[in-house]
Amino acid sequence: MKGHVYLILEHTTPMRAVINSFALLGTAFAFAVPFADAGGASTDFKPFPGWKHAIAEMRGKPVRRHSHRIARFETKLAQFNAAVNAVDYVNDDYVYDEHNYWPTPSQFYRWGGECRDYAVAKYYRLYALGLADADMEVAVVRIKKTGEDHAVLLVRYGAKTYVLDNRFNRIQPPERMDDFAVYYYINRIAWRAGASVSATPEREREVHGHTAN
């Protein structure tokens, strides 16, 4: 089973307790991503209301576990990545008048958004192209060099893995993940904690990114 995303927990249950309670599910829900930390996964999305809102426009669309055959995949991936990165980067407090608001892709394309919103919009577009939910994860991370929180989309197709980062129009290799400490991964199938960050906050993390280079 494959999959990744980022959020900020808004409930009172300590995140560490949630993570520990699902650690035993690792065998059933482990994502086979070579550069990702091994760990348990959960299908309980209650701690992630922002994520649930962001993917609301996919309601009714079947969760896909196997990607379709996609002609010229890398070319289309690069085109989609650059097109989404062209959307204006804006702070959610300013545009949506709500701190840490997770817009739907329709809202994002109209008013802009932050780095997590680029990742979610790419998830939508690649699903429409034929990619499986199981082959995508939004990863919520901390940039090791700067200490800044960030979010990227991880994609797997065939034998290759790609990192889509709104800071770069060029598709990044899996080695790019070495620059990050991962808080968690999420997709429509499950979410899991990254083992590389010792202290996980109790809220969906607030993520800010940069415009593409």
Can you describe this structure?
- The protein has one domain (4-193): C8orf32 fold (Roll).
- The protein has 7 helices and 6 strands, in the order ααβαααααβββββ.
- It has helices at 15-21, 26-29, 49-54, 73-85, 92-95, 105-111, 115-129; strands at 41-42, 136-143, 149-157, 160-164, 180-186, 191-193.
- Strands 1-6-5-2-3-4 form a 6-stranded antiparallel β-sheet.
- Mean pLDDT is 80; it is low at 1-38 and 198-203.
Core attributes:
213 residues; alpha+beta; C8orf32 fold; 7 helices; disordered N terminus
Topology diagram in text:
Blueprint: H1 15-21, H2 26-29, E1 41-42, H3 49-54, H4 73-85, H5 92-95, H6 105-111, H7 115-129, E2 136-143, E3 149-157, E4 160-164, E5 180-186, E6 191-193
Antiparallel strand pairs: 1-6, 2-3, 2-5, 3-4, 5-6
Order of helical and strand elements: HHEHHHHHEEEEE
Q: Uncertain spans, ≥5 residues at pLDDT below 50?
A: 1-38, 198-203
| Gross CATH architecture | Roll
Overall 3D geometry? globular
Continuous helix count:
7
Q: Structural class of the helices, strands and pairings?
A: alpha+beta
From the 3D structure, determine the CATH topology.
C8orf32 fold
**For the terminal residues, how far apart are their CA atoms?**
33 Å
CATH class: Alpha Beta
Total domains: 1
Summarize the structure.
It is built from seven helices and six strands.
